[in-house]
Write a structure and sequence with these properties.
Layout (H helix, E strand, L loop, with lengths): L8 H20 L2 E2 L8 E3 L5 E3 L6 E2 L30 H17 L8 H10 L5 H4 L5 H10 L11 H16 L10 E7 L1 H6 L1 E12 L23 E12 L8 E4 L15 E7 L2
Parallel strand pairs: 5-9
Antiparallel strand pairs: 1-4, 2-3, 6-7, 8-9
GO biological process, one term: protein folding
GO molecular function, one term: protein serine/threonine kinase activity
Enzyme class: transferase
Length: 283
């Protein structure tokens, strides 16, 4: 992925979006990758990136295995500090993502040297300031990379989907030049009974949207007619749509269920965002 050095800023951000998206899905399933690095990121001709080599993935409730033979599992140049102490969780992957993003932006790894030099640097030192290595990097992107590379996992973003949303906002703010742009993700809450939470079910959710008024503004962007009883002249009317959603057995309060393509519409022909249903257990 980085054989030609640093990437254009927009390409680096969009590749990181794909990585964070893949990590969010894995983490939602209780898995931690443990070896996020450039050689495990495949960028397809359409610009979309895929995370590969889940061969050492494990559940996030296990200790990080430094093995009885003393061999590190992972790649030291991209490993989070806590991994060298024998522990890991999903935030360790976010640190590795920070290392990869730093390298995509600057053409340099945050730290270099022998394995033992790398371990010491990850534990005790800060990488050279990103902004000095690439002056054109947007401040919000610099801040996000710094948070991803925090030594303390508690100082990093809480989850990969949060990182994905932050990167998409950076892309929209700094690099959207009339190109197809993916829509924003949407979040709704859904209450389920303890029984459904325990055993699962298929249910429906209603989404309230704004749509062009069918009486006076049938085309998107058209102006409404004064006195229209349907939209009161706004050109938009409220519309409800019903969607099936599968509640998996054992769902937890606060867990997010993802429905692809049901978020807000994209711009300039871009795909729609995703809908995240946040589970609330009541009753």
């Amino acid at each position: 992925m980085l054989k030609d050095g640093r990437l254009p800023l927009s390409d680096a951000v969009r590749t990181a979006v794909c990585i964070a998206d893949a990590l969010g899905t894995a983490h939602g399933a209780g898995l931690t990758h443990r070896d996020i690095k450039p050689s495990n990121i495949i960028v397809r001709p359409n610009g979309q990136a895929t995370v590969v080599d889940f061969g050492i993935t494990k559940g996030s409730d296990e200790r990080h295995d430094i093995t009885t033979s003393g061999v590190l599992i992972g790649t030291p140049a991209y490993m989070a500090p806590e991994c060298f102490n024998g522990t890991f969780d999903h935030r360790s992957d976010l640190y590795s993502l920070g290392c990869v993003l730093y390298e995509m932006l600057t053409g340099h790894q945050p730290f270099t040297g022998t394995s033992w030099h790398l371990i010491n640097q990850h534990l005790n030192e800060q990488p050279p300031p990103l902004i000095k290595r690439r002056l054109s990097t947007p401040p919000t992107l610099v801040n996000l990379v710094e948070r991803l590379l925090a030594k303390n996992p508690d100082d990093r973003p809480a989850e990969a989907f949060q990182v994905m949303l932050a990167l998409r906002e950076i892309d929209r703010r700094y690099f959207d030049q009339g190109l197809p742009n993916r829509g924003l993700d949407r979040y709704v809450r859904s209450a389920v009974s303890p029984r459904i939470a325990a055993f699962g079910a298929v249910t429906h959710i209603l989404l309230a949207d704004r749509a062009p008024c069918p009486l006076c503004a049938p085309e998107p962007g058209a102006s409404g007619a004064e006195g229209c009883e349907s939209c009161q002249g706004t050109g938009e009317a409220s519309a409800e749509t019903s969607h099936r959603i599968r509640i998996p057995p054992g769902v937890k309060a606060g867990q997010r269920l993802r429905l692809r393509g049901l978020g807000w519409p994209g711009r300039n022909g871009g795909e729609a965002g995703d809908l995240f249903v946040v589970v609330r257990i009541e009753g």
